[in-house]
Design brief:
Blueprint (H helix, E strand, L loop, with lengths): L3 E8 L7 E8 L5 E2 L3 E10 L4 E8 L2 E6 L6 H6 L10 E7 L6 E10 L4 E11 L11 E6 L6 H9 L4 E2 L10 H12 L35 H33 L7 E6 L4 H8 L4 E6 L2 H15 L12 H21 L5 E4 H6 L1 H11 L6 H11 L4 H6 L12 H4 L2 H17 L15 E3 L2 E3 L2
Helix pairs in contact: 2-10, 3-4, 6-7, 7-13, 9-10
């Protein structure tokens, strides 16, 4: 069965003045493969400065960098006066589990002065990852940013008998994320320049890395190439899913939950939810959003409370600069919401604080769990019991006072920057014109899945 199909390949050729030329030779349009990987090869020859390597990039993330170490006698013959022409080729194989099923990769040449030039782009699609495991527990992903109310939501979810959450503050046991990360890393073809090397991998007791043997000459054998790129990947997925299941079933038993339906974990808007949805078609995902001006305010207040900088504030010199960092994270969350809007359920922090019963009833309906008013009121009451951990976690004296706190707590310059920076993003998430409160219901549910209105 074909797993991967290449749809488009575009090369810059000789249109860049800083290069004598460049090209993506493989894959080619229409190419089909039976493994969860893609071979990429080509050449690049610098004119003003030497090309020191080539990067494979997806959504501004560098997946790997490889040197120009492949002999190209054809390029050497065409550019006989250029010293670097003889070894101007590059070749690598990348795994396709670190993104969506419709992929786009940019190939960039890196010059000696560390500047980049786009060599070309590759677009294609792959089939869903197959696994022989049949789970009895489904993932419930709570995808959000820091200081948006995830700890409170997870505390509430932990009280529902149908949801397994590690019932210890800060409710952040992320074992499933660990095994999903393991799957992506260990299924990745060899990367001897940046990851494990077949000659010395055993020298490190703290690091495994990409499979160092998933490369030529072993994969030159068609049967071994298929095993590394297909059979092994699917077997690894089965192992990771079984590990997740065992961990959460044991947790459920220790917490006296005889018939759990979901295990819940916090997520950030990265690539993990995509792979989780592939392996668990019955999964559910909650996107939790909060007025990002209050998010900035809460992050700064939490840093002050703990006495050190975090959330990225340590990487910039001012609170105004920090707003831009939060903006990038907010855009990533918005992108996740828009890309999976037919699957996910949006919860706003403000609704959860001001109208907890209504918000949770709707959420549990989406999850097709017991959403009776008595059930919801009981779990809200238990979750709200006095807790020293939660008191330490809050940065407002009362939950409702955390809404709109940016108006009184932020310095004028930071407040003005927030107002301008987050206006459109908040509107996309359904906040009113003055962004004081959400503007009505998030969406309607159909067969347990939210649909946009």
């Amino acid at each position: 069965m074909t797993v991967v199909k290449t749809l488009e390949v575009h090369s810059r050729g000789r249109s860049e003045q800083r290069l004598w030329g460049c090209r993506i030779d493989s894959p080619v349009v229409g190419e089909r493969t039976k493994t969860y990987a893609l071979g990429i090869a080509g050449w690049a020859l610098g004119r003003t400065l030497p090309v020191t390597g080539v990067e494979i990039v997806s959504e501004n993330t560098v997946l790997r960098r490889v040197p120009l170490d492949v002999p190209r006698p054809d390029i050497a013959a065409a550019f006989s006066e250029v010293p670097d022409a003889e070894r101007s080729g590059f070749q690598t194989t990348i795994g396709l589990l670190d993104g969506t099923q419709h992929f786009e990769y940019q190939v960039r040449a890196v010059l000696r002065n560390d500047s980049r030039i786009v060599v070309g782009t590759i677009r294609g699609q792959r089939e869903s990852l197959r696994s022989g495991f049949r789970p009895t527990l489904q993932p419930l992903m709570v995808t959000s940013l820091g200081r948006t109310g995830t700890t409170w939501l997870m505390r509430l979810l932990s009280e529902h008998p149908g949801i397994v959450v590690h019932r210890h503050y800060p409710y952040e046991l992320r074992t499933a994320r660990y095994w999903m990360h393991m799957l992506r890393v260990l299924s990745e073809p060899a990367n001897h320049y940046q990851s494990a090397n077949f000659e010395n991998f055993q020298a490190s007791r703290w690091f495994i890395g990409h499979n160092p043997f998933y490369s030529p000459p072993l994969t030159d054998n068609p049967d071994l190439g298929y095993w590394f790129g297909r059979t092994y990947v699917e077997q690894l997925a089965t192992f990771c899913q079984r590990s997740i299941e065992d961990c959460y079933q044991l947790s459920a038993a220790s917490q006296h939950q005889p018939e759990p339906v979901y295990f819940a974990e916090k997520h950030v808007p990265d690539r993990t939810p995509w792979l989780t949805w592939e392996l668990y078609p019955e999964a559910r995902e909650v996107i939790l959003v909060r007025d990002f001006r209050d998010v900035v305010c809460s992050m700064l207040a939490y840093n002050s409370k703990r006495g050190y900088l975090a959330f990225g504030r340590e990487d910039v010199s001012s609170d105004v600069e920090f707003v831009e960092k939060v903006r990038k994270s907010a855009l990533s969350l918005l992108r996740s919401y828009k890309q999976r809007s037919s699957q996910v359920y949006l919860v706003r922090y403000e609704d959860l604080i001001l109208h907890p019963t209504d918000s949770l009833e709707s959420l549990f309906e989406y999850l097709q769990l017991d959403s009776a008013e008595s059930t919801v009121e009981s779990l809200v009451r238990r979750a709200s019991e006095e807790s020293s951990d939660m008191r330490q976690h809050w940065t407002s004296s009362e939950p409702h006072k955390s809404i709109g706190r940016w108006r009184r707590d932020l310095a004028p310059s930071v407040r003005a920057t927030c107002q301008e920076t987050f206006a459109e993003i908040l509107e996309d998430f359904g906040y009113t014109e003055d962004f004081g409160v959400p503007s009505g219901p998030v969406g309607q549910k159909h067969n347990g899945v939210k649909e946009d209105t």
